[in-house]
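dumping this here before i forget
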Amino acid sequence: MKTRTITTIRKWVRGLPLCLFAFLLFTGCVDEDEFADTPQGNFEALWKIIDEHYCFLDYKQQTIGLDWQQVYHKYKVRVDEQMTDLQLFEVLTQMLGELRDGHVNLSASHDYGRYWSWYEDFPTNFSDTLYRAYMGTDYKIASGLDYRLLDDNIGYVRYESFQSGIGEGNLDEVLMYLMLCQGLIIDIRGNGGGDLTNAEKLAARFCHEKTLVGYSQHKTGPGHSDFSALEAHYLEPSGNIRWHKPVVVLTNRHVYSAANEFVMYMKALPQVTVVGDRTGGGAGMPFSSSLPNGWSVRFSAVPSYDAQRQSVEFGIDPDYAVALSDADFQRGKDTIIEFARKLLAE
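structure:
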């Protein structure tokens, strides 16, 4: 088998302009005659795909000291022609783990190589037990949103995954129901991302004028620094019901990808405060390519930045860093929710 051309995987991004998509597809092709379907050939193909198309090599060299050429030499000696597919998969997955990117995955019929330390090495700062205590059994559900009115006249909305669709009608009903509240809590702790359209749709309900929320670039060549100029991205106000009162967004390390982008959007809005832990990051739009043996590799190909042109690949700091405390847990209280309630009450 020969290598295959790049294909897009975009569960969490909006549609690219046709010209940009065509450009990325053209520049992302791997020479079909270049690598053999051998352990060494698959290793070389994978390393080159990342070397030419991954978008954070320069950034991660600056921030974590990653040297992709050194990584090549480190793992090349671990590959030999007698190794099994299982052994090769383990080596290639370990090599990709050097990138420290949850959007980088290796897929085979027997396994899914992934890097999850972006949240596994940190406190969860979320308790399902406490969540059930706050919500009870009589909360309301509008598609992907769970919501209720707390006893201090604070609205609470839980959105577990941006994979779960929400319609404009859903949002109208939720905001109408909570309209007399003095403030609103949006809890996206544990939200690992999904469809960026849902993130934009929700954020637009808190936007009252066209607002600069960030920038993006795309690769223009195989060099680590070959990028286009920064392209500004704006959030437009929703044409439906909008929320004008204060909002607190709750975050933890498991907030990633499209959820990370949602936090970036919300932080650009004046009436929004972010409370909890730093988000997990994931600021690169994922693309995919195939190895000679048919395994698929997904990787970050288009970087995004916040409104201050800073990378959010490694996460976004909250306005108030708050962690769950053992003492509060024993009392049946969620420290982060209680802090948000106090902010809104003030």
